[in-house]
């Protein structure tokens, strides 16, 4: 909290700085991808000390998650979606992802597309899919081959992201959220039902 | 055909050169991605003139297709799969893709992963999906929202490639082809049936 100006409400100043960091991070992730973006550069662009980025967001991964404005965090959001049970889960999943991603098309596209520019690693979105999505879906499934089916649901979600934001197939890329939900959710639900 | 040695059967010599070009291309695509690979470099590595690559394969795109050893080419293969009608098409599509891709996991992964290292373009696999897969699927569909559904089938295929080869989710990545077909095909078929 060094450098905080006196006489200004802490909450407002904190919100301003947090917003400035998020705006810089969004620009940086979209332009240079996840691996090409450093916390130091984001901090410099936002006019704050790098320690403040760590203070607000903890890590570059969490900063990325925050730029997507997923409520709370993906794990918590998914937990809520899944808590309502397997019935209608395909619909809730597709709606949650598309409506969370749509406001950040460029960031999502950059991250899915080539954020890892030729390295061996998977794109961070794919890593998040592995650690968060597959685990969450798996907990919601019943019946046989739960692991495989959870991974294939994740495949559908990743594929939807690639097709809507990276490949930008038309009419898919421009279709309203509810049209995508109506068309895609039954296919996702079919894997959930097994 | 300059530089062909005399006294050796044309067909055998031609097959050797073609195989040498393919081997060089496979290595180059896996190591440097689609955009990072030049026909000139592939030719040099194979010890042939670049014009011979053009003679055998026509373009870098066709050379890439050839490295995947898809029988004839993807459009012809898909046409055959689709000609059998929409019934069971989900199953035939998943089996065709997985069994065609499995022998070339590294190439597929490299191309899906980061072949375009930060550029604006889509990965070539995504471009091929747009031009070949979406168009072919679309021709097989009946009912409403055919364009959207064809693009969502392509999304499922791309997502399967990402999950099996790039993210390498387990058990998905190691599952036998027929296990993947059994689990995923009904979800693909659900979009085909609309």
Structural commentary:
The structure is a homodimer of 194-residue chains. With 194 residues, chain A is an all-alpha fold. The first copy, chain A, has two domains: 10-67, Arc Repressor Mutant, subunit A, CATH 1.10.10; 74-193, Tetracycline Repressor, domain 2 (Orthogonal Bundle), CATH 1.10.357. The first copy, chain A, is built from ten helices and no strands. Chains A and B meet through helix 8, helix 9 and helix 10 of A and helix 8, helix 9 and helix 10 of B.
The assigned CATH architecture of the largest domain in chain A is Orthogonal Bundle
The fold-level CATH name of the largest domain in chain A is Tetracycline Repressor, domain 2
User: Which stretches of chain A are low in confidence, meaning pLDDT under 50 for 5 or more residues running?
Assistant: 1-5, 115-120
Structural class by secondary-structure content of chain A: mainly alpha
End-to-end C-alpha gap of chain A:
52 Å
Q: Proportion of β residues of chain A?
A: under 5%
Give the oligomer, counting copies of the same chain as homo and different chains as hetero: homodimer
Shape of chain A: globular
Q: Provide the domain count of chain A.
A: 2
User: How many DSSP H or I helices of chain A?
Assistant: 10
Biggest sheet descriptor of chain A: none
Q: Give the tally of β-strands of chain A.
A: 0
What would you report as the Rg of chain A, rounded to the nearest angstrom? 18 Å
User: What series of H and E elements makes up the topology of chain A?
Assistant: HHHHHHHHHH
CATH superfamily label of the largest domain in chain A: Tetracycline Repressor, domain 2
In which range does the helix fraction of chain A lie? 55-70%
């Amino acid at each position: 909290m060094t450098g905080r100006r006196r006489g200004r409400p802490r909450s407002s100043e904190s919100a301003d700085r947090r917003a400035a960091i998020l705006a810089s991070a969004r620009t940086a992730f979209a332009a240079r991808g996840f691996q090409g973006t450093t916390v130091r550069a984001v901090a410099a662009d936002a006019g704050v000390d790098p320690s403040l980025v760590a203070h607000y967001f903890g890590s570059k991964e969490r900063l990325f998650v925050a730029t997507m404005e997923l409520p709370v965090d993906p794990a918590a959001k998914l937990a809520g979606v899944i808590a309502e049970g397997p019935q209608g889960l395909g619909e809730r999943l597709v709606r949650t992802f598309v409506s969370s991603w749509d406001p950040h098309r460029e960031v999502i596209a950059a991250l899915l597309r080539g954020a890892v520019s030729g390295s061996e690693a998977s794109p961070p979105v794919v890593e998040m899919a592995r650690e968060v999505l597959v685990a969450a879906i798996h907990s919601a499934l019943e019946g046989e081959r739960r692991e495989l089916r959870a991974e294939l649901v994740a495949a559908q979600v990743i594929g939807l992201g690639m097709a809507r934001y990276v490949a930008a197939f038309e009419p898919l890329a421009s279709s309203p959220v509810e049209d995508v939900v109506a068309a895609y959710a039954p296919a996702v639900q079919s894997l959930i039902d097994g």
